[in-house]
Each structure stands twice: as C-alpha cells, then as structure tokens.
Design brief:
Order of helices and strands: HEHEHHEHEHEHEHEHEHEEEEEEEEHHE
Number of helices: 12
Strand content: 15-25%
CATH architecture of the largest domain: Alpha-Beta Barrel
Distance between the termini: 23 Å
Bound molecules: pyridoxal-5'-phosphate
Helix content: 25-40%
Structural class: alpha/beta
Length: 364
C-alpha cells in the first residue's frame, strides 16, 4: 500500500514550477535580486521543500516570519541571507547572532537591543530596518524615524543590509496608496544613512519599474497565486490537489445531502462522497459552492463541507465510483478560483492546506 492509497487526498507540489516562477520574477525585477519569502512553512507547501528548490535556482535571500522558522531551514541554505520579518523579540538576540539569522528591526527598541548585542559581540551585526509607510503593523513610525534621523549613532554596530517597507495594496494596481507609499519610502530612506532598499512583494513587482529596488520580496507569486488579479495569471500553478471518492450513492428526488440538509435533490441523483473536509483546510465556506473536476468536467459541490468529507453531484458522470479521483485544485480548478468561491484569497487557501494530505514533490 502506498501513502497515496492510505490518504483521502493527495497534494502534489511542483518544485520545477516554483523554480520557474522565481526565474520569471527575476526577469521582471531588473533593479536587483529577488528573494524568496518562505514564511508559514513556505505558504503551506513545506519550507523544507521550497527553500532548497529556490536556493538551487539561484535565490540567495530568504524571509520567514519567526525565528523558529528560520532555525528550521537555516542549515539548508548555505551562503544565503535568511531574515525574520517579525522582528527581534526580547531575549532572542543571542540566538540570532549565534545562528547567523538576520532580524528585520521594526522599532527603536529593537534597534537598541541589536546595537547592544553588537557591542557585546565586539563586531558589527547585520540587520534589515523596516520603516512603516502605511501598514501600521510593524516598522518604525514617523516619530521613531525622526529620532533615528536626528541620532544616526543609534545604528552604530549594525551593518545595514537593507532598509525595507511593505506595500498595503499592491495587488490593486491603480490604488493611490501605491505611489503614496513609494514617495514616503523614498523620503524615509533619504533621512537615513545610505543603504540598499527593499520594496516590492509579488504584486509590487508588477506595478512597474518605479517599484523596483535592490531586493524584491515575493512570496505568493512563487507559489502560483496571481499577482495581477483581474488580469491573466503570469505565474505557473504549483499545486495539484486530488481527493478520493469513498462512496457513490443513489438518492431519490426530495432527499437531502449533508448537515442541516442544505441541499435537496430535485431529481434522482448520484452523490459522490470524497475524503477531504475542513479539517484538511478545505474551507467550510465552500459549502454548496463551486465544483471539483472529473475527467476535465465539473462536478458540483453539494451540501455542507464537513470535517472529513465533502459531497459532489455526479449524476452526469456514470464513470465516477469508489476510488475515483476528483481534481480539487489543478489545471481545471485554479487556486484563485477556489479562493474566490471560498470568499478568501489564494494565500489563505494555500496556508490552510492540511497536514493529512499525502504530499508528493514533483521535479526534485
Ligand atoms: C509576506 C510578506 C511578503 C511577501 O508578500 P507576497 O504578497 O506573498 O508576495 C513581503 N514582505 C513582507 C514584509 C511580508 O510580510
């Protein structure tokens, strides 16, 4: 028995497509290198798969959200910059320094603690500096920036690899916030000691050359999420999710399917029950919405998505039987469409992908 026979659903991760997506972004971003953002376990695909694949493609700058995410992949990424976006928690300074992980400093307090760490180490320590230009989550605010501009000595001992900011609405190409943030970022950098700059996330790379910087930081687009919503997706799909049909049952007109009987057959119907549910990250908000595909044909999802099971109307597909595979994400069911049907974005779909799936890496 193989693991794919034992699991209700199989997730295939196409590493060659991820590498191709990185190369495409590198071609688009002419002003400087392109990092790989592999936070949240590589957007749910597995950072230990994705990060070495990007490294092999030539990527030498990586971002995660937390220190423990960095520690888990750091040995796989020789001669690369590995930075932690969420900043420097008190008490972790020595761990960063010992393991060569680079903090993204987002407040004067973090700057002070990293400078103190450098003093006690007796050597300069690398860091990125995050300035807030509109997100109001992390990064130096205007008041803190003004202090740093007045007292640049606070950065003594810190080897500034990049000054960075994060775009608020980059996927909305005509949003006035984009040029406003561009201007605020240029102004902020002008007040700080000269250093390379890092600006664009995935969608930012597609906003035009003005949004180019010394380091782009894409995540989503690497994994096939469309960085240009409303326009054709320039990226390759990287995941294929298939689920097993466990049973097919015949129901009469008037019978209902699933919890709370939200779907009622208007004709004699064949219902296929597949082995995935919201415990696998197949969101409950998909109840009664969209379709899986069988043999390239849509089979509508009917009734509530339950914890481990989802039901499909296969009345028009006599070939579907126990053991058949339904395509849940793939060439016929792109990630972004599933996200729309679920009322969310591709980021949430990917980062919710379940740990129960049998996972297969292609192109290794
Ligand atoms: C997550 C993140 C990114 C990557 O954004 P995508 O939209 O996935 O490309 C870049 N920069 C920061 C600060 C982030 O938090």
């Amino acid at each position: 028995m193989s693991s794919t026979d034992a699991a209700g659903a199989v997730l295939e991760i196409d590493l060659e497509a991820i590498a191709a997506n990185w190369r495409l972004l590198r071609e688009r971003h002419k002003s400087g290198p392109v990092a790989g953002v592999v936070k949240a376990d590589g957007y749910g695909l597995g950072a230990r798969l994705v990060a070495p694949c990007l490294h092999a493609a030539g990527c030498r700058h990586f971002f995660v959200a937390h220190l423990d995410e960095a520690l888990a992949i750091s040995p796989l990424l020789p001669d690369a910059m590995l930075a932690v976006l969420n900043g420097l928690l008190p008490g972790t300074e020595a761990d960063y320094a010992a393991r060569g992980i680079i903090p993204v400093l987002g407040s004067l307090d973090e700057v002070a603690r990293w400078a103190a760490q450098a003093r006690s180490a007796g050597q300069a320590l690398p860091a990125l500096l995050h300035v807030d230009t509109g997100m109001s989550r992390l990064g130096l605010d205007a008041r803190e920036l003004a202090v740093l501009a007045e007292e640049p000595g606070r950065l003594d001992g810190i080897a500034m690899r990049f000054v960075m900011t994060h775009l608020v609405s980059s996927e909305v190409a005509d949003d006035a916030l984009n040029p406003a943030q561009l201007a605020r970022f240029a102004q902020a950098c002008g007040r700080l000691p000269p250093a390379p700059r890092s600006l664009a996330n995935s969608s930012g790379i597609f906003l035009g050359a003005a949004y180019g910087s010394d380091l782009a930081r894409p995540g989503a687009a690497l994994y096939g999420i469309n960085p240009t919503p409303g326009r054709a997706n320039p990226m390759r799909g990287t995941v294929r999710l298939r689920a097993r049909v466990l049973q097919v049952r015949e129901i009469a007109a008037g019978e209902t399917v699933g919890y709370n009987a939200t779907w009622r057959a208007t004709r004699p119907s064949r219902i296929a029950t597949a082995g995935l549910g919201y415990a696998d990250g197949f969101l409950r908000s998909l109840s009664g919405r969209g379709a899986a595909f069988f043999d390239g044909e849509p089979v509508p999802l009917v009734g509530r998505v339950s914890m481990d099971l989802t039901t499909y109307d296969v009345t028009r597909h006599p070939a579907v039987g126990p053991g058949s595979w339904l395509e849940i994400i793939g060439p016929h069911c792109p990630l972004d469409r599933l996200a729309e049907e679920a009322g969310t974005n591709g980021y949430e779909i990917l980062t919710s992908l379940g740990s129960r799936y049998a996972r297969i890496a292609l192109g290794r």
